[in-house]
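Task: sequence design from structure.
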């Protein structure tokens, strides 16, 4: 069995019910020579996985479980194109790899469920955004969070430059030139309207198309804030034609093609960080109020029961905390055990996955923002 690079979270692999469930995380590097050490770190993590599997599984079962992981180890193209972190989730039926914009702590664990809290942090929507790079001739779309940004690979058939979009409607010639004053003299121009007027009409048509495309295919489905990066003069034009409710008033002035991804990330996060902090404060305030009203809790046992009853609207988790143990699938009862046992996992992670299955929202909070020390809190549906 090979593996698949995926970009969606939660991925359907989380709902597989046949173990062993292998989770691996490691920090990676984008460039040489630093990235040369990444496969070595991964190889060392494989030893931890194999040692853990040996507690319960036969040599044949261990070989089958390790096979896709060795395929990852040997994939030079993968290791030459990593980002800031790598996550691997593997079980008998499937193996997936995430290339992360967020650095992660090295981890290799075999358990009764996948370890997913780092992915919750990496993929939670409260710090994600879309960035629209726009000029009068073309556009590109990016998606990122506070840790990184990458260009979205649009379908090859998607028109993304003004000629492809406007086609026959594009002004072929803004003016007609005639030399009425004789050779060597300045040309005289005639036509209907000035060149600037015609150019502005084409630009406006192009911007309307870009706005509709981004809104329909990205903003409405994902509901992420949209930030425009374009020359200063293009911002009011695009704002006037845009109907995208997710477009922020604040934008980045400049030619987007002249900026690196890191420069785009830094400029974007300057705009979004206050919004992100305000969202965190809003979530915490709502949680504290719910706990005061009796519609929220930070009790591990109460929340576990509520998740099994599909009563959790929003689950908050401290990704820095781990509680070794097992959640009984029939009752939701929690048993404390050691993580060395492949039958045991992280209780918090188990509850996160169960909450995702019941369509609860899951939000990672920093330790300082969590109420109490349980590492978990919830707002109930009823």
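Answer:
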């Amino acid at each position: 069995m090979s593996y698949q690079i995926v970009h969606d979270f939660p991925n359907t692999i989380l709902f597989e019910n046949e173990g062993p469930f292998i989770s691996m995380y490691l920090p990676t590097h984008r460039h040489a020579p630093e990235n040369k050490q990444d496969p070595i770190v991964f190889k060392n993590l494989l030893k931890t996985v194999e040692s853990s599997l040996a507690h319960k599984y036969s040599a044949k079962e261990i070989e089958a479980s390790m096979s896709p992981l060795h395929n990852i180890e040997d994939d030079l193209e993968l290791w030459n194109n990593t980002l800031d972190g790598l996550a691997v989730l593997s079980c008998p039926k499937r193996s997936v790899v995430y290339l992360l914009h967020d650095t992660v702590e090295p981890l290799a664990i075999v358990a009764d469920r996948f370890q997913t809290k780092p992915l919750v942090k990496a993929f939670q929507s409260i710090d994600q955004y879309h960035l629209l790079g726009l000029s009068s001739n073309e556009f590109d779309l990016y998606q990122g969070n506070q840790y990184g940004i990458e260009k979205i690979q649009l379908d090859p058939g998607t028109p993304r430059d003004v000629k492809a979009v406007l086609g026959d409607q594009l002004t072929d010639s803004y003016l007609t030139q005639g030399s009425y004053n004789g050779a060597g003299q300045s040309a005289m121009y005639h036509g209907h309207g000035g060149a600037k007027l015609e150019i502005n009409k084409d630009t406006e048509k192009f911007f309307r198309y870009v706005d509709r495309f981004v809104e329909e295919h990205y903003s409405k489905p994902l509901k992420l804030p949209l930030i425009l990066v374009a020359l200063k003069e293009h911002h009011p034009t695009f704002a006037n034609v845009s109907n995208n409710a997710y477009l922020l008033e604040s934008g980045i002035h400049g030619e987007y093609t002249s900026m690196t991804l890191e420069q785009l990330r830094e400029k974007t996060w300057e705009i979004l960080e206050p919004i992100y902090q305000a969202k965190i404060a809003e979530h915490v305030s709502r949680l504290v109020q719910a706990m005061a009203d009796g519609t929220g809790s930070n009790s591990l046992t109460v929340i576990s029961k509520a998740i099994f009853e599909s009563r959790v609207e929003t689950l908050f988790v401290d990704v820095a905390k781990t509680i070794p143990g097992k959640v009984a699938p029939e009752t939701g009862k929690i048993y404390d055990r050691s993580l060395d046992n492949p039958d045991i996992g992280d209780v918090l992670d188990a509850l996160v996955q169960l909450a995702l299955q019941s369509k609860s929202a899951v939000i990672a909070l920093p330790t300082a923002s969590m109420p109490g020390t349980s590492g978990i809190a919830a707002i109930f549906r009823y």
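Residues 127-273 form a domain with the Nucleotidyltransferase; domain 5 fold (CATH 3.30.420.60).
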